[in-house]
Structures are given as C-alpha cells and as structure tokens.
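Input (structure):
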C-alpha cells in the first residue's frame, strides 16, 4: 500500500502544474487496457481511452477498442483482428464539433527479452471509416520496459517504460503523426499494473504534450 500511495503522489505531481494553469497546451489521457486469455491460444483485447484537451472535463476524444487475438507461439507472436469506435470533439474556429469514426484493424505483436530489457514490437493496419472519408493507416510501435526495483518484471516492482510510435497513411500525405512516451510504472500483481507518464505528439508540424495514466488488466477468463 505504501508503494501505491507513492505512485499516487507521482501521478498527482505530474498533473498538478497543468491543473492549476489557467490555460495549457498539455492534455491528459486516462486509459484502461484489458488483455484477457479466453483459451490457451486466444485472447480478448478490450480498451477504453478518455482523452482531454486539459486536465479533465474538456473531452478531446473517446476511444473504445476491442478484438480477438491468437498466439502463434506460447504467449508471444500474437495476431489480432479488432474494431474501434472513436468519438472526437475537435475545436473548429473556437467552436466544438463532433466526429464519429469506425475502425477495423489488424495487428501483430512480438516480444523480445534481452537481460533486463523487455521489448515489444507492434505492427498495426487500420481501415478508418470517417464521416466523409475513408483512409488506411499503418502504425509501428516500439516499446521498452525496464525493471527498476528488481531484475525482472515481477509483482511489486517499479519499472520504466519508453516507447515511440509512428503513423503513416497509405496515400498522400504519408506522414500522419509520431508519439514519444516515457513513464514510471508499478506491477501490482501478476495480472495488473499501472503507469503514469508523459507523451509528446508531433502532428502537422505541431507538438502537443499529454499526461497519461494507464491501468493494465491481464486477468485470464480461463481456469487452469
């Protein structure tokens, strides 16, 4: 419990400067990720992201994503077919607009371990059904987790997380955006962990920062 309280203090410290600022270009994302085994090879992916223009209360985007994956090898090399619903509320000439997007996506995740370094590669293809357009986008994500208070990613361990993700359209303009992320995480138990960090996004030659708080749930739906 002392470690959880310490993590809460870190999360509060990350967000406090932006909460009390009258106006800030830094937003906040609150994220839940579920990846639950439904058989020895199959997994159910479920995810909700609540994204704000500021600390809280000014919705930028609500994203709900789900899918079914299959491990090609034991607990690794996962292929997944999924669907995403995206509700966006961008500002257009000071006024808020509302856009709805439906996505179908296919992805492949492979994991590698080098000593204390835990790498993840994710390749994702998205078919995006916008209200007045259709686009296909490719994403490549490279993530790295490093245990800090131990040698392995085990329960009750603090860890550092860094990642980079690039988004590319299959038509012009090719470059969409790039996200660089760094965080401190804590492994609660073998099936749950939490992260608090900062992400910088480059899009249309503009930089925008995001405070991110994520909860990860891997509780299996099967009985061993």
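Output (sequence):
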């Amino acid at each position: 419990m002392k470690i959880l309280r310490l993590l809460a203090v870190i999360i509060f410290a990350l967000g406090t400067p932006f909460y009390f600022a009258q106006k800030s270009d830094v937003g906040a994302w609150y994220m839940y990720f579920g990846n639950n085994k439904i058989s020895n090879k199959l997994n159910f992916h479920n995810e909700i992201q609540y994204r704000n223009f500021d600390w809280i209360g000014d919705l930028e985007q609500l994203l709900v994503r789900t899918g079914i994956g299959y491990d090609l090898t034991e607990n690794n090399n996962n292929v997944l077919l999924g669907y995403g619903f995206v509700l966006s509320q961008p500002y257009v000439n000071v006024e808020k607009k509302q856009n709805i997007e439906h996505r179908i996506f296919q992805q492949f995740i492979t994991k590698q371990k080098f000593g204390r370094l835990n790498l993840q590669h994710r390749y994702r293809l998205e078919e995006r059904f916008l209200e007045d357009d259709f686009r296909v986008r490719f994403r490549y994500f490279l993530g790295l987790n490093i245990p800090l208070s131990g040698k392995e990613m085990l329960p009750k361990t603090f860890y550092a997380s860094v990642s980079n993700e690039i988004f590319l359209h299959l038509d012009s303009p090719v470059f969409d955006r790039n996200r660089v992320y760094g965080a401190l995480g804590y492994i609660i138990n073998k099936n749950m962990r939490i992260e608090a960090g900062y992400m910088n996004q480059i899009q249309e030659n503009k930089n925008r920062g995001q405070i991110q708080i994520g909860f990860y749930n891997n509780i299996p739906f099967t009985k061993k």
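Notes: Confidence is low (pLDDT under 50) at residues 6-24. The chain has one domain: 2-217.
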